[in-house]
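seq/struct pair 1
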Amino acid sequence: MSGGLGEALERVGESLAALGCRCQRLDGHPDLPVPTLLVAAPGDDPARPVLFNLMFMPMEETGLGQVDLLQFYFPVLDGLGEDRRRDVALLLAELDAELPIGQLGLREGEVGLRHMMLLERGQVPSRGLLEEALAVLLKLRELLAGTLRAVAAGDMTVEQARAVLP
């Protein structure tokens, strides 16, 4: 990653810190091939912040010379057992088709919400844009998380989940 994107990630972290988030940058971690910002955003319960990560996706080899992609990734559910995987995957596919922004995914027993913010090359989103994006993504995560957990636990069927989700 170029120094420019690393510096841009630092500036994003400064803006998020000004919004009340705690941020920690990780570089060189084997599971994270690019510098990543771990973020703890204030949640409804002050003792339980919402954790997510941000990273600029490597674009050098794509031929897209005018844009950068800033990825937001929110874990929504983890520890999904194989016995409930089919139902959760079915619900995710249906929900994903209806989401106004972001994408839901299932990998190794974890459901995540991912959003890619398209930026002009070398630009950093303003604090206001970060605040708006974070508010929307946190609300979306909140709307989906309880229902996904209920389906994953077997406390709700996919049909019941369809009925309660907006």
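seq/struct pair 2
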Amino acid sequence: MPALEFFVPALAGYLLLRLTNIRKFGLRRESGYHVVFRATLVGLALYLVAAVAGQLCPSLYSWLDLLPGWSALQVSGAAVGSLLLAALAPVPLNLWYKPLRARRQLADKKGDLVDQLICDTFDDGSLIEVAFPSGKTYLGFIIKSSTADDGSDTGILLVPLLSGYRDSDQHLCLTTSYGRVVNERWQRLALAIRCSELKWLRRFDMDLYPWTEPPRILTVGEAPELD
């Protein structure tokens, strides 16, 4: 049996793992040996399904014989069928298993508390406080996030509504509101932040904040100062 007969289903297995939300996030953090093993097992399953389909419908792969030079490759219709299944199956699977659900499951499995919190804010639209070691603080909404392939760090894209600082006693002092300009200029306001650079990241409840002094409201004519 030619090597392609083994390679094509293994490739199909890798494509299915890489293209489906169920596995693609976790696949990035696995070692090469684990990836090859999983791809081989999934490819074998796809190969068996394609082979059974070929037995039930003998003419299913007859179109392959019309391709020039196909017979010289010595690859069965089941192997090609496994590749076609890997390309088509992610469409319905991803409609059922959304990316956020996959990321949340992976965060729960790995015990990644930061990613768990980020996934929760996507679900309920919570206001988030991000605080830097310098004391600078932003309150806003996370609109996008990503995790490094090895899981070493998480990045977020935050659109701030308010900004200020924490004093030496960790009391929050809000100095600027971006509420009037955020709808028109959110692209300019958006902050790309590595979570490893933060002192903390947490939900923020506006109703619990003691408004001793309201923040300055930024107007459309002003340039936002994001430092």
